[in-house]
Write a structure and sequence with these properties.
Elements: E1 3-10, E2 13-20, E3 24-30, E4 40-41, E5 56-57, E6 83-88, E7 91-99, E8 105-108, E9 112-115, H1 121-132, E10 141-147, E11 152-157, E12 163-166, H2 173-179, E13 185-188, E14 191-194, E15 202-205, E16 208-210, H3 214-219, E17 234-237, E18 244-249, E19 255-258, H4 265-271, E20 284-289, E21 294-299, H5 301-305, E22 319-322, H6 330-348
Parallel strand pairs: 11-17, 18-22
Antiparallel strand pairs: 1-2, 2-3, 3-21, 4-5, 6-7, 6-10, 8-9, 11-12, 13-14, 15-16, 15-17, 18-19, 20-21, 20-22
């Protein structure tokens, strides 16, 4: 007989303990309704029984979908390789085209060598006026952006021409995919098929995950997912044929591992050379399905090891996260797992090297 017991309610998050025939026990975390349609969780069948629950939404960590501001707004920080034009009002010999050198510096007339990288144009203008003002009376400095080479984004993975591209004007996700000549395709039974795993595609911005439902964007034409890109953005679209699971966090060898039918959670941990001494073994997080609509499980591996409950059977593309401590909410658990996953991809740049994102200190 199936039983469902609510353990507690914490900040709008329900945590339910599900007990099914065969002593299989897992905790499913379900978020409460929220305004964001982009990131949500839902329940899914757990053999041999089915628990049917409503879809819920997660708080949206997405940054505001604003277009890239113009450079005079002061939001864009200069970087090495950028070309700027500097002039002083009413001095014809002052007009200079300057490229910021690899060290991030420029050299200009009376100012000498000045660090430009990391500064906005108004900030650099103010500094140059102060320095030149030591030699000239009340100079009026003007700086114009000529070519901002550091304004780039990367789009990698299952694309015809992945790489790093110049960010000129307003470029959205669909524009970026088009610049990379579209998604990679292949032949299956003489039919052309896309080789992209849209469920696990992601956008990383300033080391933070930005939820984009690539499947809704590309298959349903949902233009609200077609957000504007910013300098430094990293898009990754995995290949669909890869049959792997991902282990992250407090194991001795985090990384990708080939998935075999009926691979269990404990077997996967053994593949990763076991837990390390920081692992919180009673609160293992398994994220299944798409990054924007995941099903999230919390599994007590201590009870599995002690023979109190059956092992948890994994599925291909599951993301397993071994934390240092118990999470207090679904929002916290899901954001940590997804952030760790996407940062590992971006940092490793398609290698098998993984490092967990540092977790917040326990209060």
């Amino acid at each position: 007989m199936k039983t469902f017991r609510f353990l507690y309610i914490y900040t709008g998050i329900l945590i339910g303990l599900i007990t099914l025939p065969g002593s299989l026990s897992a905790t499913i975390l379900i978020a409460t309704p929220n305004v964001s349609p982009s990131l949500s969780t839902e329940s899914k069948e757990i053999s041999p029984g089915v628990i049917k629950l409503n879809n819920r939404s997660l708080p949206d960590p997405k940054e505001p979908n604003t277009d890239i501001k113009n450079h005079e707004s002061g939001l864009y920080a200069l970087n090495a390789g950028d070309i700027i034009e500097i002039s002083i009002y009413n001095r014809e010999d002052s007009d200079k085209m300057i490229t910021i050198d690899p060290s991030g510096s420029i050299s200009y007339m009376f100012a000498g060598s000045v660090k430009a990288a990391g500064k906005t144009i108004p900030q650099l203008k103010q500094e140059l006026q102060s320095l030149i003002g030591l030699s000239l009376r009340d100079p009026i400095v003007n700086i114009l952006p000529v070519e901002l080479k550091s304004r780039r984004f990367s789009i990698m993975g299952a694309l015809s021409n992945p790489g790093t591209y110049q960010l000129t004007g307003t470029i959205c996700v669909l524009d970026a995919i088009a610049m990379a000549n579209g998604l990679k395709t292949g032949l299956l039974r003489e039919n052309t098929v896309q080789l992209a795993d849209l469920d696990h595609a992601f956008l990383l911005r300033n080391k933070s995950y930005v939820p984009v439902n690539f499947k809704k964007l590309l298959h349903e034409g949902s233009m609200k997912e077609n957000i504007s890109l910013q300098a430094g953005d990293y898009l990754y679209i995995p290949e669909s044929h890869i049959n792997e699971i991902t282990l992250l966090g407090e194991v001795n060898a985090p990384g990708y591992y080939e998935y075999a039918d009926s691979l269990s959670l404990i077997q996967a941990v053994v593949l990763a050379k076991g837990f390390n001494n920081k692992a919180q073994k009673d609160s293992i997080i398994v994220l299944r399905g798409s990054l924007t609509q995941p099903v999230v499980y919390r599994v007590n591996t201590e009870k599995i090891i002690n023979g109190e409950i059956m092992d948890f059977v994994l599925e291909s593309k599951d993301i397993v996260y071994i934390p240092r401590r118990t999470f207090y909410s679904l929002e916290e658990a899901t954001k940590t797992v997804i952030t760790t996953f996407v940062q590992a991809f971006a940092t490793a740049d398609n290698t098998k090297l993984f490092n967990a994102v540092p977790e917040p200190e326990t209060k």
